[in-house]
Amino acid sequence: MRLDKFLKVSRLIKRRTLAKEVAGQGRITVNGHPAKASTVLSVGDELVIRFGQKVVTLEVTALKEAAKKDEADNLYKMIREEKVD
């Protein structure tokens, strides 16, 4: 599954176009490498996303084409969330 679609389905980022922008700015890494919106994810990949003042590290636990709101947080496991100044 593409990175931008995963971020939308998992509700980490609300819109796919916004996910493309964030990836295009180089604020997302997959397994330590800078990721584009078209990067293909697989289960077990580690994502690091920089949101403004915080950095979120998570692991992909499942890939689904669509997920209900209450199922969305089952697609990833939060590893670390840290504030950045």
Write up this protein:
- The protein is α+β, with helices and mostly antiparallel strands and 85 residues long.
- The chain has two helices and five strands, in the order H-H-E-E-E-E-E.
- It has helices at 3-9, 16-24, and strands at residues 28-30, 33-34, 46-51, 54-60, 76-83.
- The protein is globular, with a radius of gyration of 12 Å.
- The chain starts with a helix and ends with a strand.
Short key terms for the protein model shown above:
5 strands; single chain; 2 helices; globular; 85 residues; five-stranded antiparallel sheet; alpha+beta
Write a brief caption for the model.
The protein is an alpha+beta fold. The chain has helices at residues 3-9, 16-24, and strands spanning 28-30, 33-34, 46-51, 54-60, 76-83.
